[in-house]
Amino acid sequence: MVNQTKKKDIRALTKEQLRNFFVAEGDKAFRGNQVYEWLWQKSAHSFEGMTNISKETRDMLEANFVINHIKVDQMQRSSDGTIKNAVRLHDDLIVESVLIPTKTRTTACVSSQVGCSLDCRFCATSRLKRMRNLNPDEIYDQVVAIDNESRLYFERPLTNIVFMGMGEPLMNYNNVLKAIDKITSPEGLGMSPKRITVSTSGVPKMIKKMADDAVRFKLAVSLHSAIDEIRTSIMPFNATFTLADLRESLEYWYAKTNSRITYEYVVWEGINDTQNDVDALVDFCRFAPSKVNLIEYNPIDDGEFRQASSSTLDMYVNTLERNGIIVTVRRSRGKDIDAACGQLANKQ
Ligand code: SAH
Q: Domain limits of the chain?
């Protein structure tokens, strides 16, 4: 009997490594391509089902490798159509991912880490300490699961992906990049990178790295305040990654990619609800074409944070528009099942 613990995760191998493995086994490199296609494009859960591979080769793979897959443990559907998946990983940890349907789109909101190491005071995920990074296949599988659900319940494929689930994607950059490579590759899901948005709370060094890597997906930054003192009080890591550094990294990003930046922003009563706050935001946005998404606040606690009034939102919208900044006011989806922004892991 082969010791289970000695088996390697076959999906951790690149295509090249898989090809080399077969050559080392005295087989053809091409066999690696075939198996790779089964693992990614066809999402095979077992070696047994790889019908164009000989029984002998399948047994050999079985003896050497495991195929890890996520498992959707629980699926909840909101009255507005939103679906939240509780996803069990191979080591029994749980993350959440969300399917958000609109008239014309299906968006997958996926997690990049189990828990989060940042401590945004308004976000439920921050209460779970970061346990580990997700592997590329665990990110990819969340997307596949939502694509399947979209086909099943809405009779159309997934159209967009946002990295706005649990975790900070830029603190798991390499794995997020590998997952996106597979999602966009014709050997994976073949999605356009233009339909993928990575949302970050703002890690300047990694934003510059993304620019250097010439990534083709979109960037969103969770800003919430353009005044250091205020931002630090609600997003304490801002004491280390200050607005000046963030802005410098975003200037670098824009210079290299020419790609517009989206800012996510919640307006809270008594925190960032004055004309001074919106003026600072306008000033922060000036260096590059920008879009501001004003997100509705989803309460996660006993009322420490309260969404500002609609007249305050109007003040934001008017000031931003007057200054030529695109602004959208985004209503939350899936609140009744705790699937809205910042609510993931609220009840676990
Ligand atoms: N760590 C990444 C991605 C996860 S958060 C980031 O910070 O961007 C996804 C978005 O939800 C962020 O813009 C975040 O600021 C926002 N968010 C967090 N908690 C929220 C809440 N309670 N209500 C509304 N939006 C929230």
A: 4-66, 71-337
pLDDT digit string, tens, across residues 224-260: 999 999 999 999 999 999 999 999 999 999 999 999 9
Instruction: Give 184-251 as a DSSP string.
Output: HSTTTT---GGGEEEEES--HHHHHHHHHTT--SEEEEE-S-SSHHHHHHHSGGGGTS-HHHHHHHHH
Alpha helices in 91-189 (DSSP H): 136-154, 173-184
**Ligand 1 — pocket residues by CB below 6 A?**
122-123, 164, 168, 199-201, 222, 264, 266, 295, 297-298, 300, 341-342
Predicted model pTM: 0.93
Say if 4-66 and 71-337 have the same CATH topology. Answer: no
**Residues 56-108: tens digit of each pLDDT:** 999 999 999 999 999 999 999 999 999 999 999 999 999 999 999 999 999 99
Annotation says 109 is catalytic: no
CATH number for the domain whose boundaries are 71-337: 3.20.20.70
Q: Is 120 annotated as a binding residue?
A: yes
Distance 224 CA to ligand 1 centre (A): 10
Q: What CATH fold (topology level) applies to the domain 4-66? A: DNA polymerase; domain 1 (1.10.150)
Q: Please pick, among 48, 56, 96, 269, the residue that the annotation labels catalytic.
A: 96
CA of 132 from ligand 1 middle (Å) equals 19
- Please tell me the distance between residue 260's alpha carbon and the centre of ligand 1 in angstroms: 20
Whether residue 341 lies in the annotated active site = yes
Q: Which of 138, 149, 264, 341 is catalytic?
A: 341
